Amino acid sequence: MNVIMPQLGETVSEGTIGTWYKKVGDRVEEGEALFEIETDKVTMEVTATEAGTLSEIHVQQGETAPVGTVVAVIGDGAAAAQPAPREEPKQAARSATGAPADTPGLSSTAGPGMAPARGGNGATPMAPFREVRTPERGFGPAEAAAGIKVTPLARRMIALKGLDLEALAREAKARGGWRIGKREIEAALAEGGPATRPQQPAAPLARLEPRPDDDVVPLNLVRRQTAKHLASAWQQIPHVVQAVEIDFGRVDAVRATRKEAFRQTHGVSLSYLPFIARAVVLAIAELPRVNARFDGDRLLVSRRVRLGVAVDLSHEGLVVPVVRNADELNVTGLANAIGRLVRRARAGELTPDDLSGATYTISNNGSFGTLFTAPIISAPQVAILSTDAVRKRPVVVETEAGDAIMARPVGVLAQSFDHRAFDGAYSAAFLARLKDIIETRDWAAEFA
Amino acid sequence: MAELTYRAAVSRGIAQEMARDPDVVFLGEDVAAAGGVFKSTVGLLEKFGPLRVRDTPISEQAILGAAMGAAMTGLKPIAEIMFSDFFAVCFDYIANEFPKSRYMSNGQLGCPLVVRTGNGAGSRFGAQHSQSVENWTMMIPGLKVVAPSNPKDVIGLLAAAVRDPDPVIFFEHKSLYAAKGEVPDGEIVDELGKAAVLRQGKDATILALALMVPRALAAAERLAAEEGIDCEVIDVRSLVPLDTQTILGSLARTNRLFTVEENPRLCGWGAEIASIAADEGFYDLDGPIVRITTPHIPLPAADNLEDIALPTPERIVDTVRRAMG
Fold first, then answer.
1. ipTM exceeds 0.90
2. How near does any CA of chain B get to the CA of A118, in Å?
3. Catalytic residue check, A315
4. Does the reported pTM lie above 0.90?
5. Which of A230, A383, B128, B212 could pair covalently with A290 via S-S, beta carbons 3.0-4.6 A apart?
6. Does B60 participate in catalysis according to the annotation?
7. Which chain A residues contact residue B289 at CB under 8 A?
């Protein structure tokens, strides 16, 4: 049977083989992992759906091939299987942690493709018809007050940027226009007028008078919106902060050997953050209540880990894009996913989907050299972790020959948690697990 | 690098594939001894001999039937249907035989053939010899459809079509045969299913095919110079598979979509793309999707009438300007 490059997402058109677990000539059992593939969205293991002998490998480790390509052939020792295109290839795409992939919208079957080409390059042409993907959410009304029409794009921009439709409609009417489109939205954003302030404050803010030696620095929209959320979170949530010191020696050992190759292969640097993120995902599996939303008399504990990663936009504001499938990714996958989100955040390309649904958040302040930070929780989540600088410090290490002082790379992880959701002992246990994982996990094996 | 005409590129593309693979054969009306009525297959008989390059009787059904039989039994035929209008004469093969054989035989009978044809208007051949019928084939599941607009794409897409294991309909444009373009030396192989962004722009996306591509480009230059409207022009190149990624990606950036189609209005290739954009790309649209097509009429034979029937750069400029309002 042909082993085909699966389609791991509706907009995914190719995948890269990260690692082959089997060689030509190896025996393969049903359900055994064959190889790991990376797409631009996710890293997954592909398993065999039939037993046999791996007789041919057409796409090698590190190579990229389009979805539907015959990647390998598993035979009973006979010649390569002839193309049987009407079968939907059914490799179960399993996540790196072994749980079946059930992310909505992903399909593990290739499209209704035709047979692989018997041509020079052996690649399979794209499926001739790709199913259309209707947008899943709407963005507000197509018509505002007084019959002013709103274009689909404008509806999305209004929702995304938190603009005031009524104010925009009034402005359009006043101008004698009949529509709100991209032009009108961009003009409103440039002016920063009433349309950009959707919520009138309940009581007008007491205005201060600028002094002669003051410079007036207006706060941009992102900052004003963030300010509202932070103030509200601070008022509503009883924050308690706990911290733990972590020896990053093991992580450093792996980073030292892997960093260069990683940057060459993936174009992202291998910082501490993906290791910490991985440890967070693993610790959440054992202490899941930190990964929840507070809802008055109950906690909504999430079975998935959707990890928010705070990204600073050159000191002009903070956004927290979300790695939606953090619980399915290994360190490499997390590094790539986070790198992509950061890049898109800085290019202003994040979508509403990228910014919603986080169940736990990490605020990474390490590059600024701080000792620790007490971050503010992003409601309705119940916890947030700050990672700060990792520095060589003198540390007491117990050896067989007695206590010794060694230089070790140490960093502080501080978790702010919502004391309504759980108590200090639970949070401390979570931090203790994090410490244990980071300090003792076989990190080299994550890259094998 | 060399400058080649579109017609010379056709014979170079066929020769490239016939030289590479002895199973590639070529048949059609007057393609061998005469080198093709459009002189697009000159020299092939001399190079590859009468076994592999054959003149056929004037019977489209015989041409495609023979091609299909050859394809089913191990050859890789290229069959020419001189005027794409004549697909209507051999449509049973195109609609019912080629695209269904692999499926209905459970993979036993593949159909790795290419049907090349002279498509489109502008050469004063009248209503029954000037139609643009890409949509007649785009709509049939099991066929792949490409339409190159320049000599390099002729060779590259023809090579990709020949190497594809499924039936591919290859629409050459009759009025482009004399058009010249730069073509690199050596083997050229392109990919089916990939559109080409020929002009980058930020205000609107214009999709075009074959003869409409140079017209769209000309219109885009005028729109930029005269109206300050910066258009992105995409040569769709492949209708099946369709490069929705490039097209929707462009729409996401420009937020306006126009198509320039030589076919008559109803059910032209642009209608399908407009439907996809209005679905998947709905929230990227800042205005209506506008299709610029030939009116829904039989094409006139008179020069002046044929010229104003097809979309012209003037009509494209005018329509885009008014729509962008």
1. no
2. 7
3. no
4. no
5. A383
6. yes
7. none
